[in-house]
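Question: Hello, beginner here. Any chance you could explain the protein record under this note? Any guidance would be welcome.
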Amino acid sequence: MAYMTNDREIDYKLTKKGETFKGTMISRSSIVDFVIKIINNPEKYMSESYGISKPGTDNMLKQIREMDHDI
């Protein structure tokens, strides 16, 4: 599971079902970018299950929990 941010950056890595999911954060802008790619080329992503996360955000669950408490 990835924590979604409101950052405007588009920076993500996809993992397919069966691969180790890495990352704990993702921007909503990155999700929108991926959804647009699926809409424009559905055959490429058909019959697959994907995970999406920002590279370099592995093992950040503690920081995310701290962010949630600050809100």
In short: Residues 28-40 form the longest helix (13 residues). The two ends are 20 Å apart (CA to CA). The chain has a mean pLDDT of 87. The first strand starts at residue 3 and ends at 5.
